[in-house]
Structures are given as structure tokens and as C-alpha cells.
Amino acid sequence: MARLLIVDDERNIRSNLAAFFQSIGHDAQAAENGRAARAMIEAAPFDLVLTDFRMAEMNGLELLARIKQRHPESLVILMTAYATVENAVGAMKAGAFDYVTKPFSLEQIQHVVERALQLQGLRAENRALRNAIDEAPLLESASSVMVRLMETARQAAASEATVLLSGESGTGKNVLARQIHRWSPRREHAFVVVNCTTLSEELLESELFGHVRGAFTGAIKDKPGRLEAADGGTVFLDEIADLSAPLQTKFLRFVQEQSFERVGGDRTIRVDGRILAASNRDLRSEVAARRFREDLFYRLNVITLPVPPLRERREDILPLAQWMLAAASVRNRRAPMQLAPEAATALKSYDWPGNVRELRNALERAAVLCRSDVIRPDDLPDSVFREVAAAGPAGTAPAASLEQVERAHLMRVLDQSATLDEAAATLGINVTTLWRKRKRYGID
Ligand SMILES: Nc1ncnc2c1ncn2[C@@H]1O[C@H](COP(=O)(O)OP(=O)(O)OP(=O)(O)O)[C@@H](O)[C@H]1O
Ligand SMILES: [Mg+2]
Fold first, then answer.
1. Rounded to the nearest whole angstrom, what is the distance from the C-alpha of residue 170 to the centroid of ligand 1?
2. pLDDT tens string 245-269
3. Where are the beta strands (DSSP E) in 248-361?
4. pLDDT value at 405 more than 80
């Protein structure tokens, strides 16, 4: 049963259609003009709206635009007695699912409506599937540390508090930030990600805050900043430690007052954006080293969510791996794949310096390379496979510290890779992280 709305200023047509669709089991309602229809749509969305094209006051196209704006999921079918190519093309461009020309038989219209509803069902199913795939592993962690963290994240999401996500590269800070936005009352509004590393200072400033015409060479017109797009929504400042000193200052003001001026402009712009920030560097030591403003740090650090590295929540490795394998099979259109017991052991004992990202890369690779439906240890990257072989049977005490292992592993991968990019890809970390690690361990 679907919720249908029939809009036509001809009484006979709308009541016959409504009666017909009710008789075949739908919840069909009727409206006599665009205005009445609009009020009903505002009250509650319909699965499908069947509307006349020519009506006084608000025509079918205007109604269509209104529906698409309020409830993009609703399907709209236009009925027109004046079938012209322009009408049809205009309607389809504006997002109509289909159009029918009057007069039509009940059988014809039933066919068009059922087809539309089937497609809509399919789309909803796909969406549900995608959402399930997006969220399941995050929400169902078996690690008590993670469960507590998610609990705090949920509570934080409901508030307006600024949240700082910390943790090594690849632990899932971006994933969690997006989840917090989805859990928050701001979920219907934009989630704007600003990566503080990728842009030069000048570009980042104008990207964030916008600029006015003539602010600098090449500023040929006024341009709003991305922060403005976050009005009502969430701003996620990724890799915040990389924010330059002047931008830290400008940002501090935004965090405090929710206002700023465009570059070169003097009009103050107010934006209601909730702030999330992430860093894989320890901001406290950045503050101690005077590289990060203390006042900004305290403003951001209202709630801290330290996302633990994968090796500190080993109980998550196999569930995550299984889920990623399932997702990879679907993506590569393969039969569902399984992990051989030895492969599972290898995954569980490896240290995952690149965290969830490295795990994901390892499984994607295995899913592509594997020739049967079972992933064996030698389908896994050498690093995983060899580390385990070298460590001996699972359960024996490791002879080296984590840092020693990480250092040795980095050196080996760097040795075997032609470029830094290649090494970073094998490790499942980004090049910036690789740079930092190389520096930390004194590898050149
Ligand atoms: N719980 C999870 N479930 C499924 N996939 C995850 C999960 N956590 C992380 N991932 C995947 O791991 C990869 C890395 O996650 P993400 O980008 O969120 O890490 P990060 O902590 O932001 O890393 P960086 O510090 O390098 O930016 C992504 O491909 C993401 O999809
Ligand atoms: Mg990230």
C-alpha cells in the first residue's frame, strides 16, 4: 500500500482516480488544486503524486518543484491534456518520474503508477542496504573501549558541544565525525568537511571564509566560503593541527562568536555551524611546543573522543574484516568470500600500523586477487603474511616493542617500494603520515 495524492481541478477525474486506487488497496487522497495539494504535502509526504499539468494558480510544474524541494523521495507523475514535447521535457528535467497524456485508461495509469512505486521500493532498499553497510561495523564494536567511546559520541551528538577527535591515522576519525553529524539534530543540514592540510594558507582562508571581489589577484567576483554552506549544519575541520597561526586566530573568533568577514570584506557574516575537529597529532603537545594556540585548543577540546588504534581493539579485527570482505564482494560482483582460518589468525595477530584503513586495503586487495571463494594467508599483503610468519605461532610473546616492529615494518616497505606514494598505499596511510613517521623514526 502506498500513499498517493491525486491533484486535478476536474472533480470527476480526481474522484474517479482516487476511488480506483483505493479499490486496489492504496491510500489515495485527492486535492482540487495546487494550493490544497501543497498544504497536504507540507503536513506529511506522499509516496507518489499524480498531478494535472494545467491548473489555475499553481500549475503542475510549480507543484512538482515544491514537492522535490520538500520531499525529494516523492515521485511525481504529470497528467496533461496538452501533450507537447516541451511540457514533457520540462517536467522530466524538473524531476518528474513520468507523464501521461489525457485521456488515458485506468489500466494505463495503474501500470505507470505501479512501475514507479516498484522503482521507488528498489531505491529505498538500496539506500537501506547502503546505510546498513555504512554503519553496522561502527556501531557494533565488540571492544568495550569502543562501545564506551560510541556511547559518549552519541551523547555528544545530541548536544551542541564542540568535539575533538584524536587518534592515529586510519582509526576512523572521519567515519566517526560523519556519524556524529548523522546522530545530531542537525542531520538534515550540510556536513562540511574542511581539510586543513591539502590547501595553501591563502587558498584555505578564502575557501573557508570566502572572499570579496578584488581581495587578491584572481578574485574576480565575490565568493562565499564553505563555512557559510554549513549554516544549520556541521563543520568538520580535519587535520586541525595543520592550521596556520593566522588561520588559528581567525578560526578562534569563529568558534567563539560564530561570525567572520570574507577575505577583503567588512560585512560580518553569521553562521550557525556546529564544530567537529580531528587530528592525528597530539594537540596538547602541539600547544606545549607553541605550534597550536592554547585558547583555540580549549575551545575545541570540550569533548574529546580518542579513537583507539586497531591493535588495541583486536576483537574488532575479524568482524570488520568480514564486513569489508562482504562489501568488497558486492562491489566486485563476486560470490561471498570467506576467510581461511590461517588467514583469520594472520589478520588477528598483525599489528596494523595503518589501522582500519590498512585492514580495508588488505581485504580489498585480497578480494580482487583471490582465485577461489576462500581468502588464504598468501592472498594477504606480504607485510601481514610475513610479520605473522616471523612472529611464530600466535600467542608467543613478542620480542620487540610496538615501535620497533613499526619501525622495522616501515623500513621494509620503504625498501620494497619505488615511491613514497606506493609505500604509503601499501601501508594504508597517507603520505603526510608516512613523512611524519619517517621523521619520528629517523628513517631516510
Ligand atoms: N568502523 C569502521 N567501519 C568501517 N570502515 C571503517 C571504520 N573505521 C574506519 N573505516 C575505514 O577505514 C578507513 C580510514 O578511516 P578514516 O578516514 O575515518 O580514518 P582517519 O582516522 O580519519 O584517518 P586519518 O587520520 O589518516 O585521516 C576508511 O576507508 C574508512 O572507511
Ligand atoms: Mg581523517
1. 5
2. 999 999 999 999 999 999 999 999 9
3. 259-261, 268-270, 274-279, 303-306, 338-339
4. no
Please tell me whether residue 193 adopts helix, strand or coil conformation: strand
Higher pLDDT, 289 or 428: 289
Q: Is the CB of 361 under 6 A from ligand 1?
A: no
CA dihedral for 430, 433, 437, 442, sign (positive or negative) = positive
pTM over 0.85: no
Q: Helix axis angle, 382-391 relative to 341-349, nearest 10°?
A: 80
Cell 575537529 locates to 277
Could you give the CA distance from residue 345 to residue 371 in angstroms, rounded to a whole number?
20
Task: Give the pLDDT score at 28.
Answer: 95
Grid coordinates representing 203 are 587558498
Evaluate: CB of 171 within 6 angstroms of ligand 1: yes
Mean pLDDT of the region 315-338: 83
Q: Which grid coordinates are listed for 50?
A: 499524480
Question: Ligand 1 in contact with 367 (CB < 6 A)?
Answer: no
Domains in the chain (CATH in brackets) are: 3-126 (3.40.50.2300), 142-308 (3.40.50.300), 310-399 (1.10.8.60), 400-444 (1.10.10)
User: ω into residue 103 within 30 of 0, thus cis?
Assistant: yes
User: Whole-angstrom Cα distance, residue 365 to residue 385?
Assistant: 13
pLDDT per position as a tens digit, 84-134: 667 777 777 788 888 888 889 999 999 999 888 887 776 766 665 555 555
Select from 327, 383, 282 the least CA-distant residue to 138: 327
